[in-house]
Target: Purple acid phosphatase
Amino acid sequence: MAASSCDRGDTRKKLQITVVFLVRTLLLACIIARGVLALIRVAFRVAVVAPARSLVAVAGAAFSAVNARCAWCLEQAALGRSCTGTVLGDAVVGAMASSWRLLLQGITSLVFLCARGADEYVRPPPSPLVLTAHGKPASHPQQVHISMVGEKNMRISWVTDDLNAPSVVEYGTSPGKYTASATGDHTTYRYFLYKSGAIHHATIGPLEASTTYHYRCGKAGDEFTLRTPPARLPVEFVVVGDLGQTKWTASTLSHIGGGGGDYDVLLLPGDLSYADTQQPLWDTFGRLVQPLASARPWMVTEGNHEIEALPVVGIAPFAAYNARWRMPREESGSPSNLYYSFDAAGGAAHVVMLGSYAEFEEGSPQRAWLERDLAGVDRRRTPWLLALVHAPWYNTNEAHQGEGERMRRAMESLLYEARVDVVFAGHVHAYERFTRIYDNEADSRGPMYITIGDGGNREGLALKFIKGHKSAHLSEFREASFGHGRLRVLNETSAVWTWHRNDDQFATVRDEIWTPMSQVRSAPELDSRRRRRDSDDESGERDLDTRRHRRRSPSSESCSSSGDDDRSRRHRHDESSRRRQRDQSHRRDRGGHDERRRRSPQRRKEPTPPPPLLPEMIPGRTGGIYIPPFRMAQMMREVEDKSSAEYQRLSWDALKKSINGLVNKVNATNVKNIVPELFAENLVRGRGLFCQSCIKSQMASPGFTDVFAALVAIVNTKFPEIGRLLLVRVVLQLKRAYKRNDKVTFLNSPFQLDMQVIAHELVALELLTVLLENPTDDSVEVAVGFVKECGAMLQDLSPQGLHAIFERFRGILQEGEIDKRVQFLIEGLFAIRKAKFQGFPAIRPELDLVEQEDQFTHEISLEDELDPETNLNVFRGNPNFAEDEKAYENLKRSILGAESSDDEEGSDDSSDEDAEEESDDEEDEEQMEIRDQTETNLINLRRTIYSTIMSSVDFEEAGHKLLKIKLEPGQEMELCIMLLECCSQERTYLRYYGLLGQRFCMINKVYQDNFEKCFVQQYSMIHRLETNKLRNVAKFFAHLLGTDALPWHVLAYIRLTEEDTTSSSRIFIKILFQELSEHLGIRLLNERLNDPNMQDSFDSIFPKDHPKNTRFSINFFTSIGLGGITETLREYLKNMPRLIMQKQKPASSESDSSDSGSGSDSYSSESESSSDESDRKRNKRRKK
Model:
């Protein structure tokens, strides 16, 4: 039976391998077939289309020549002259000429009839690809493009074929003179058989606005130039979609840059390279757009041609797009690179880039992010709001009908409520401009929709528009031509939009309209009379503007019906003149009538309008009243009874606002600074508020889940009841989501609580068991995401439990009852497990802030009856309020220290005295101390040290440059840390770092003391280092010890026993002493270790407190080949029984004489055990 089951298992495995091989072979065949079809298409064009066009041209010339000859013959016959010299010949020629003349007239009429519908413009066909090559060294940058990162920074991205090229950008305001530099990172990706080069990303700044900078990438290659956008209006955007890389693309790019680059930012709503799984096309596209993309920021979003997903071979969607075009998602708080936002012109314009191919339904991360982003836009500071999306929400073209309808229904209301001005889209390969719309109806408060997917793609133009479409009456202009658009925002109230159609030599302005600002439209606080009057005036002006615009830029439909003869043109001109005069007279008449209508009500006295709301009386979104902070503080000071319900209510509101603010602004870099501020608030009273704020913030920003988990883990060390309350609420939330089949809530749940060891691993295993007990597509997908997040942690804490979960996954996969997509997810999960969860770390190093001994783990079962204690979320009066506040003050002082609390009390007292006395003299005496809590200077110092270390030729040059850096007192430690960090990052140990550290230790004792502290810190955290880093660190400190740059008493921090060491620490000790043996030799090393003056420092390495520890030390050094240094310890172990017996005699006599009989020392038990062991050995020898 066992053999048959093994055979069945082998057969199943072989069958799986065969299926995978066949699928991959089929994919490869498809790719080859696609290439063959492309070659056939090109050959057909060369062999058939080109000769046919030549034949048509020759035929046209022949027809022209025959037509001219016939016309001459008929003219000669009309004059009575002979064209052949004979009567018969003239008759024959005359008949033939008349026949040819009639035929040519018919052909000419047919050609003119066909040309009438083309509006005197021939639609361009799809053009061939433009493939660029990189003929420079592998280390030189290519495909350079820039993007905006905040208001004052730029991200420089480029590609090098050399994977070891540095990710460094040098820049300055003068050519060839670089006054600053920035170091970034690089990445690569694989796509089937293709492997990309090194894709570098580096952020430079802060930069001055409207300034030209010269920069060089990777310290090699050409110099590039960029110009930063302005800090205030006016600002100009270029908008182009569905770009591709054809000759028409090159034409569009030449038209965009033809004006000397007279624009500030380029916006691209998806479909960049049209690679469509052919990854080398990404490289050629990057080289094609480099002249423009390296000079102005390109802000792009994804299209359908960027998906490129191949789940069979484990290729995730948007792999190439995310690796090559990194956008400012983190700066805008977006959890995905597929959607983000940014500000331009100093915040006067806010641009939202939406993802048509990311989840956008209710409860999705994109919708939640969009709500937060639009809510944070202050339209008084930001008068212009733009949005970009790939699939158009309104479209009258036959192509891609209705593809954006679901996204429109999900998100249109958000854009409408935020008063978005313009929404740009691509996808449809034509140009179309709609009026302001909301929900398929014209609405002056809605955004203007513009489709501009005509950048030059290889698929050609979408020529057919639907005349009877339901949105046709909303379309003001449409034309199927290649081109690009420009939006120039002039000031806070007006902007001009122009669409430029591509001709062969120049860009023709085909459509133009002036766009008013959306905020000018009726505001809520205006009264109904003024709102009705403004809307009437605006509608009248819009009608006039529409008539003017239609005269200036007719639509394609009107152009198709227009005649081409001069008589019709003169008629249209006369008709336009009459209309213009009629409009002017109508406007004068209406103006006089409106003036009379405005004057007449002045005779009646209008009631006085109510005064505007004061700032502290502005109602909030939830119906409450907003009170400014200064007003809140004043109200709290005015309350005399600090125990009254009024004061408690004010302090509760202040506590709620403070906790929400601190939780909302926490991130991976400032979590250490947020924690003291959070502990300064009364978390015991506001524990319900804290848990509620953490859960809401995490659900709104799932990308920051690990940050919130790290914050909760720190709070859990001081207030375990808060950690338990949060865990209870999370478990109840998961149970509700499971009952409701709410997959979105499940996927966004804070699984990182398990990874921070706040929740016991049994909670995670129990949850996975419930999800996989009755597997469905949604439950298995949630379980896969859960294991991805927590798999690394479960592998360390409960490997057997994780193995059982994967066996269940294997069973589900073999049953094959779930969807194929979910099966691919399970296969990908097994691949991640095989890679030891690489890319899914348990805890990021910067968020590993809690020591293991301080962690407090809670055990909660899903079957327990849990109480969320929701009453803690609302205000309730406390009769012991003053005592509880004083008790928390004492607790806060014990957590944060006396200095912080004293400083806070002193500052509060001084502020109260200043507010009460209002003394100008005391205010002048006080000085404000500004502290940099962002660590900007420290980060810049580390960058300088790192670049100096990495760019120096040898250690002497590096030491000379590093000593020139001006360090503040106490910053010497940063230099030591950076030197050790650079050493650990190398693939193999370089003696360069040891010599540099030795030089600093010998120059100043401060560095020696700091390296000693680094030794202690590294040894205490040695279990966190990878094997390669551990080896480099050990060799670095071995060099310092071997050259006496570091005192040997640091070895006292190492205690070599079985209980006090781990596998990592033993490897560290092994490499350290092996390197010392190579540096000094075994004889000199033995002399150093036997130095009588240093024995106190070496007792922890060669312990003599217990025979077990002594034997462990001897066996350890013997196993690593250094048994020669343990001779003294072996001699001690050999004589240990005799020494124990000598100490046992006085101890036994004392025990006999004493009444208690308990005066024996610690060596008695050891001697008894050793004597019993020796007796047993003697008995064994006698038996033998």
